[in-house]
What does this fold into?
Amino acid sequence: MITIAAHGVSQLADTEFAPALLSPMQYRLLTDPAPIRICGAPTGAGKTYAFLQGIRALHHWVLFVVPTQALCANIAQTARSQKLESVVWDSAQHDRLRKAGRNVWVDRTQDVYRMGVSGGLIITTPETLGQ
It folds into this structure.
């Protein structure tokens, strides 16, 4: 688990993520070789910022599991405002797809493939992912 203990940590410049200045922990979030990264940090510590910078610079995709649907919506709005592809997997999406007669997990699998090609962010809660 990667822990960001406080705000105001020193900044590192890295040309790979230019012009972003990242804290050592933000940089570690983006460069750690582990395929799954669990990060505990206070609100405003820069978790979302780090991942958005990584998506922009490397065209990677991220499955971002957060505690609430409100936070899912907030992160999606931030990503879209930065012209980054994002999708929220939640109960509203589930209901919308079922009403349209579509298989939810077929659509979600397509989201994963699309993000794998272009980069982007899939945001969900533990409850939705557990379905």
Q: What stands out?
A: The beta strands are 2-3, 12-13, 21-22, 39-40, 61-65, 86-89, 120-124. The two ends are 24 Å apart (CA to CA).
